[in-house]
Please model this.
Amino acid sequence: MSNEDLAPSSSPAAAGPTLTLAPNPAATGPATPTKITVRLWSLFGILVFGAMLAVGLWLKPSSTGVETHRQLFLPPCGMYAVTGLPCPTCGCTTAVSLVSHGHWLKAILTQPFGAAVGFFGMIVVALSIVGLITGRWIGPDMITLGFYWKAIFTSSAALLVLAWIYKIIIVKLHYGV
Model:
């Protein structure tokens, strides 16, 4: 090491780091997820939604459009037992099971919200398989979903309410409650 290396410099860069309020131009923009991150999230999507669809495939859909969940050793629907009217999710397990079995129209007619959940699961599994294999996510990114979260939530809630009204009408017409 020479004496010049140890001597203080008068240049601003050698004085130490400077603070600025402007972001680093190289750091702007959304971060690209690494392949391992995409593969881990894809595996998570396959496990969660694949398990839902696998359980739906294992279950035998009820011909009444409700009570399929009883095969999972769950209690009967309390609202249906007390009021004779289905709860907002009555028929969802049956609809997911019907989607898993490939009876898509019957699933929609049984419980539209449950069918939508089943179809969503199928899409997530398909996109996750591609993500797991390639390490690249081809579905919507979290920034886009985050931007539209209110619309997604409102639409989902509206579909649930409309499906519940539909289910009440079907039960009243079919069973005369």
Observations:
- The mean pLDDT is 85.
- The chain has eight helices and no strands.
- The two ends are 94 Å apart (CA to CA).
